[in-house]
Amino acid sequence: MTFLRRFGSLAGMAGILIFFAAMRPETFPTLGNWLNISQQVSMLLVVAVTMTVVMAMGDFDLSVGAMASLAGIVCAVALVNGVAIPGAIALALVAGLFGGLLNGALVSLAGLLPFVATLATMTIFSGLAFILSGGRTISGADIPAAFGDFARGGWVIAMDGDRALRLPPLTLVAVAVTVLAWMVLEQTSYGRRLYAIGGNAEAARLAGVPVASLRLSAFAITGLGAAVAGLMYAGRVASANPVQGDGLMLSAIAAVFLGQSLTESGQPRVMATVAGVVVLGALDNGLTQMRVDSYVREVLVGVIILLAVGVSALARRAGRGHH
Amino acid sequence: MRLLSLVGVSKSYGAVQALRGVSLDVRGAEVHALMGENGAGKSTLIRILSGLERPDSGQLLLDAAPLVLQSPQQAQASGLRVLHQELHVVPGLSVAENMHLHRRFPRRLGLVDWRGLNAAARVALDRLGLDHIDPRLPMGRLPTGDRMLCRIAATLVGADVPWLLILDEPTAALTPPESARLFSVIAEMKTQGAGILYVSHRMAEVMHLADRISVLRDGALVSSRPRNEASEQQLIEDMTGRPPRDLFPTRRKTVPAPPVLRVRGLRSSVLQGIDLDLVPGEVLGLAGLAGSGRGHLLRALIGAVPRSGDFNLAGKPLPASPQRAWAAGMAYIPRERRAEGLMLRRPITETVTLPHLRALGGWLIKRRAERTFMAWTGARVRLKAAGPHVPAAALSGGNQQKLLFARAIGANPKVLLLDDPTRGVDVGARADLYQLIRDLAEAGTAVLLVSSDLPELIGLSDRIAIVQGGRITQVLDADGLTEASLLAQTYKGTP
Q1: Which of B159, B270, B348, B442 is the most buried (most CB within 10 A)?
Q2: Which residues of chain B are within 8 Å of residue A200 when distances are taken between CB atoms?
Q3: Rounded to whole angstroms, how far apart are CA atoms B6 and B9?
Q4: What pTM value is reported for the model?
Q5: ipTM at complex level
Q6: Residue % of chain A over a pLDDT of 70
């Protein structure tokens, strides 16, 4: 039982990868495919690891998808209006920061439940994205070519026949954000205090942890992460529309939960979240290669999340029963 | 008149003998008070009478017929009803709905008959003279005292009206006028034939209410006499008559010195202007009844509740936030270990180093420094744990408390605030903690100690301040103080 609790999810996830590798040996376990997967999941990775920051406190943020969409729109609208690329990016990041601070203020200062506060800001951010864009996709000649070029570039790291395999820049961005989140959450006093809040907020407060200001800043980090993901999305497709980031929220929360099922104590950890993201990305990629219908794919992904999280929760309860 | 007899009832939990052959008669139309210190066995007795536990030996007789209680439902069917200390009410539902929670709502045509529901509640409330309570109001709008009265009235709803009502510390959360109303309701229940088993350690109300008073000590029945044969002095001796306090290390006289903590005019929602001087190396005990403000005073000092007044720690103003108070050299061990102290699922090292992270590594986590710190403080408190990474939940109660001590003494605090530090801690760990507190005082830490355990308070403190109604009414020298005289001082002036 202990073994199942500790490694059950991990074995299941490895099993999924092995299954795809066996079914599609020519295409799935190749460097080219994994570089592709890494680019596909890069936005999700950024949102998921910064979501891990608030989930370490036992909170979560439903507004990240809408914020990603909004940040892309802010950037695109700024570009259309002649703002230089660095300025447009800065504006989008500022939007993410303020959105996150708004969430943090609602939760820590006004005392709203994160579910309620971020559900409300989710619709606010989404509405703002529609207002700013007029409901249209902003693309084409209005967006400077240089903006999209970044995401399409990359460094050649290997040759597959006469095809150059490039390390996607978005992957690098995602890795950089992940390392940063890991540093902040697991190597600093700041991160330790967030985990303490997640462990017992009242106990943390009485032991001298400034709970309110930490909550505020953690939500700001998550908002900023969502904006970065929105910019990556916009760069990758060289356009922005007011719903393009919306799907990130559910996947990010799913990835953190999947990751939690991997850790011994069932707590959110950055590297565990990375594993969750990789599994979700590999599932999507592998099932597509096996030509599984996309609706069936959604059902399968849901079932797998339930299995992983459910089994580890049951195992943990059984483990507690022995004490 | 109905009669419930306990005959030689014993119950143990592991090595702890909670009840030792208790024989007791409880009658209808009588208020029977049950007294005893914490851990005397009152709660176990209540659990047996509510059908939650079965005695290891001995039996219950109801009107001379054997009574076996396997479940709360059976206890209820036998006419026994326990009202616990905690108020289990649903604040969002109406008074009438709350009064019907444990039974079917009256129906008409398959739907809830709201008029009938409210009428039934009205009848029950009126039977106890509670005509000031509107059954249609949300429970959450009623003051605490009225909620308690509604729960008593709820026992009168329906057919299975209990003949014996067991009240566990019913006045713990009530104001004096609310208590007075409760007493008149109890008197009304009694004239209607109900027996009341009244569990309390409030001397004044027991002497006022009870027809018979029984005292438990260390699981055994010490005395059971009619009220007119009982005296406060005798009851206190019955409750506390325990071996001398050799658990406690000898104290040395504190040297006169300028105070390390100086408080003037401390006010809060509970405190009514408190002045306090604490000298380095002294242990100041705070005695008082629940609700007197003694625990709240500690929370106010650490800055966890809004407060006003003049605060001075080692010559500097003391800021009103727990973060700054810890940084300024104050440490606090809260009363509720699990709810307010521990991160149960986090590794124990994280609990201990939490207030000291800045000192240990600055911005970054320095795991080696953390390990050293954990090993050092753990050894000082004689912590027994399987390793520095086990979760706090895996430790015994005594070791969990030692964990909080390790955290509190980690930075050699100037002032240590302790709220009932040995609650639920076994004797062995207790002795370790007492020695630790004395050692800290010798080394110059000033200790402010709240405890509901009187021997502990007298045994550890140099001086004892009596807290009543948010004020310090007097300060006594702990030397030569007896439990009886301290208890008498604590009760003085209360209704």
Answers
A1: B348
A2: 339-344
A3: 6
A4: 0.77
A5: 0.87
A6: 95
